[in-house]
Amino acid sequence: MPNESDLHQYQRYCVEFLEEKPQCALFLDCGLGKTIITLTAISHLLYDSFEVSRVLIIAPLRVARDTWIGELSKWEHLKGLRMERVIGTPKERVAALSRKAELYIINRENVEWLVKHYAGRKLPFDMLVIDELSSFKNSHAKRFLALKKVLSQFSRVVGLTGTPAPNGLEDLWPQVFLLDRGVRLGRTMKSYLDMFFDTPNSWLPYKHELKPGAEEEIYRRLGDICVSMRAADHLQMPERIDNVVELTLSTKEEKLYRQMERDMLLPYADGDVLALNAASLAGKLLQLSNGAVYDEFHNIRVIHDRKLDTLEDLIEAANGKPVLVMYAYQHDLTRIQQRFGKYSPDNPGGVRELKTADDMEDWNAGRIPVAVTQPASTGHGLNLQHGGSTIVWFGLNWSLELYEQANARLWRQGQKETVVIHHLVVKGTMDEQVMQALHDKAADQNALLAAVRARIQNTATDRKESEG
User: Fold this and answer.
1) Residues 25, 158: contact at Cβ < 8 Å?
2) What is the rounded distance in angstroms from the CA atom of residue 420 to the CA atom of residue 392?
3) I want to staple 254 with a disulfide (CB 3.0 to 4.6 A). Which of 141, 198, 233, 249 is the partner?
């Protein structure tokens, strides 16, 4: 079993950072080891400096169920740590909280329940770890408002994420508030927006633009509590090839797409395809790009099979190597399973959806030729790099966070093959706009991460000079 001495230099740096800063965040790429870094720091705080006694960890459900407990069993120096998973039914959660442990992990959907459970009493935790801090980017969400009420009860708060600002810097305020309670970016979302953003169009009050110099000032204010690292800077990452597969609609298919785009309506005798507003229209057009769309009664209207045909070609070209398909809508999954067959004990070669721990284990063992998953289901914390190296984006989505995290299931340390990521993009459709949006958001994300990137060597040099 590996021990603490086996940690990479950058991981040891991050462990020290977490110990030194009572409130801080690690913005680390997938594969850099956020979990083992945090557990090592917790172990030191528990048994060396005695600064904490019980730790609450909030994580996505599957990560809370599988990832953290799995990491504990891998490392020699973590053997003494006990973890209780506060998941399942209310009765099961209460039972888990009543058992003695140093670590208690709960899925983020139950944060509001936890706060209500201890209403009128102090929470029995003195340290808080928020895994995937970016899932708290909505300042109106119940999980954020519930956690906000009890922040003062934690002497230490750690945030972990790879994508702190997936949709722009407006997302940062709620996350940073959970760390410092408003010290750096203001005590309210409104004050943050007023301080750093303008609203150039009075008819679009929700549309904000950064004031001159605001971006640099935000980065400066976060520099002392945030460490950012990219995997490519610190790991021997596998080669990655991004391939855009352009598809073209027939004249008839494009006519239907343009009709929907223009009229926000596709009439059918027994149920229209209708978009009520711009956001709904964007979703309908993405569905059409994938080949089918829901009508007003949630019936599936098939428009074309362009992506299914191309997916078949890519699976054939993989020549038996496992393929992981990212789908967007339920009708995508239905149609993929209809085309290639659905997995069952009688049809083990059929398309299998990755949902359970057994599914993940079989994938990593190479027993699933074609797997399908919705990015939101496998976007965080799951290690799938041992089962294959080919991803096909059948249906795109607007979330940079989900996009990057989903790709990082295969493109991460431990992957032995070149990772090929195919994007099925129908020319002249919403697909192209989503690809451009992901590219633009990535530019914003990279700017943030570069601004707070840890310069380990420089830090070490500075320390030596000050000591000397």
Assistant:
1) yes
2) 8
3) 249
| pTM for the model | 0.72
- 406-441 CB burial, b ≥16 within 10 A, e <16: bbbbbbbbebeeebbbbbbbbeebbbbebbebbeeb
The amino acid at 19? E
For residue 139 the two structure tokens come to 């300042």
* Neighbouring-strand partners of residue 26: 160, 227
C-alpha separations of 223 from 24, 132, 454, 462 in Å:
10, 19, 9, 16
- Helix, strand, coil in percent for the chain, rounding step 5: 45, 20, 35
Q: Which alpha helices (DSSP H) does 57-138 contain, by range?
A: 61-62, 68-72, 90-98, 111-117
Q: Give the β-pairing of 352-353 and 390-393.
A: unpaired
Q: Which pLDDT tens digit goes with each residue over 17-64?
A: 999 999 999 998 877 889 999 999 999 999 999 999 999 999 988 889
- DSSP per-residue string spanning 319-356: TTS-EEEE--SHHHHHHHHHHH-B-BTTBTTSBEE--S
Cα–Cα distance, 44 to 61 (Å, whole number): 26
First-last CA distance in the chain: 38
Q: Which helix (H) or strand (E) holds 242?
A: strand 240-247
SS3 string, 275-293, reads CCCHHHHHHHHHHHHHCEE
- Cβ atoms 171, 142 nearer than 8 A: no
Query: Three-class SS of residue 24?
Result: strand
Q: How far is CA 57 from CA 35, 76, 285, 418, in A?
A: 11, 21, 39, 34
278-336 confidence digits (pLDDT tens): 778 888 999 999 999 998 888 999 999 999 999 999 998 887 889 999 999 999 999 99
Give me 307's structure tokens: 């992506």
